[in-house]
From TrEMBL:
Keywords: Cell membrane, Membrane, Repeat, Sugar transport, Transmembrane, Transmembrane helix, Transport. The keyword Transmembrane helix applies. The lineage of its organism: Eukaryota, Viridiplantae, Streptophyta, Embryophyta, Tracheophyta. It comes from Manihot esculenta. It holds the Pfam family MtN3_slv. It comes from the Eukaryota. One of its GO terms (molecular function) is sucrose transmembrane transporter activity. InterPro entries: SWEET (IPR047664), SWEET_rpt (IPR004316). Coiled coil: none annotated. This is Bidirectional sugar transporter SWEET.
Length: 280
C-alpha cells in the first residue's frame, strides 16, 4: 500500500513538472508579441480552450478527495493562460480582440458558469464528483481528438512543418504520466482520456518519422510558390515563432515583343523611323 501511494505521488509530481513545461512553451511567442506590440496574426483559440480546461479540472479537483496535484497544476495553468490572454487582448487588432472576448464569454464565463451552477444545485456528494468527472473526461477526449486535423494535414502535404516532434513528444509523455497517476489513484476520469492522448501522441511521432524528410519538388509557378509560403496552421501551439514571409519578384520573360514593355519599345521605334508609307 505504501508503494502504491508512493508511485501515485511520483507520477503525479512528474506529470505536474512536464505539464508546467508545456504550459510555459508559448512564453517566447508572447515575449515577441510584447516586444513588437502586435499579435502578428496568432490565434487565441488554443489559450481560451486551455483556460477552460484548467477551470473544469480545478473545479473537479476541489470536490474530489486527495487531488492536491490536480489542483497545483491546474492553478498554475489557470494563471498562465490568463496572463497569455491578457497580453493577447492588449496587442491584438480590434477584430481579433472582439473575437477573443466572445470566446471567453462563451466558454469561460457562460459555459463554465452554467456547469458550476447546475452541478452545485442539482448534485451532491459523490454524485457531484462523478458528474464533474464525466464532463472533464468528455471535454478532454474532444481536446485529444483535435490533433487529427494536424495529422491529416501531415499526410496530405507529406510535411511535418506544422507538427514539431518536441511538442508531440512532451504531450505524449504528459499523457503517460497522467494516465499512471489516474490508474494508480483509481481515478478513471483522469486515466481514460490520457489513454487516447498517449495513442494519438504515438501516431504523431510515427508520422513525423515517416515524413520528416519530404521530397521537395521544384515549384516553377510563382503563384504556387507564394501559396505554399502562406500556409499557416492555426491549431499549432508551440514556442516556434512565425517567420516573416518575404515577397519574391520573378521577372516575366519577353514574349516576342508582345508584352507591354516590348510593345512600347516597338511603337517608339516606329514613331522614330516612320513607316514605309511615310518614307514614300
Amino acid at each position: 500500500m505504501a508503494l502504491h501511494l508512493s508511485l501515485d505521488f511520483v507520477f503525479g509530481v512528474l506529470a505536474n513538472i512536464i505539464s508546467a513545461m508545456v504550459c510555459l512553451a508559448p512564453l517566447p511567442t508572447f515575449y515577441q508579441i510584447c516586444k513588437k506590440k502586435t499579435s502578428e496574426g496568432f490565434q487565441s483559440i488554443p489559450y481560451v480552450i486551455a483556460l477552460f480546461s484548467a477551470m473544469l479540472w480545478l473545479f473537479y479537483a476541489i470536490f474530489d478527495e486527495d487531488s492536491t496535484l490536480l489542483i497545483t497544476i491546474n492553478s498554475f495553468t489557470f494563471f498562465m493562460e490568463t496572463g497569455y490572454l491578457t497580453v493577447y487582448l492588449i496587442y491584438a487588432t480590434k477584430k481579433d480582440r472582439m473575437f477573443t472576448t466572445k470566446l471567453i464569454l462563451f466558454f469561460n464565463i457562460f459555459g463554465f458558469g452554467m456547469i458550476a451552477i447546475l452541478t452545485l444545485f442539482l448534485t451532491h456528494g459523490r454524485k457531484r464528483v462523478d458528474v464533474l468527472g464525466w464532463i472533464c473526461m468528455i471535454f478532454a477526449l474532444c481536446v485529444f481528438v483535435a490533433p487529427m486535423g494536424i495529422m491529416r494535414k501531415v499526410i496530405k502535404t507529406k510535411s511535418v512543418e506544422f507538427m514539431p516532434f518536441s511538442l508531440s513528444f512532451f504531450l505524449t509523455l504528459t499523457a503517460v504520466m497522467w494516465f499512471f497517476y489516474g490508474f494508480l489513484k483509481k481515478d478513471l476520469y483522469v486515466a481514460i482520456p490520457n489513454t487516447l492522448g498517449f495513442l494519438f501522441g504515438i501516431v504523431q511521432m510515427v508520422l513525423y518519422l515517416i515524413y520528416r524528410n519530404p521530397k521537395k519538388l521544384p515549384v516553377e509557378d510563382p503563384k504556387l510558390r507564394e501559396l505554399s509560403e502562406h500556409i499557416v496552421d492555426v491549431a499549432k501551439l508551440s514556442a516556434t515563432l512565425c517567420s516573416e514571409i518575404t515577397t519574391v519578384v520573378v521577372p516575366q520573360p519577353i514574349d516576342n515583343g508582345n508584352d507591354v514593355g516590348g510593345q512600347k519599345i516597338k511603337e517608339e521605334t516606329e514613331q522614330d523611323i516612320g513607316t514605309p508609307a511615310d518614307k514614300v
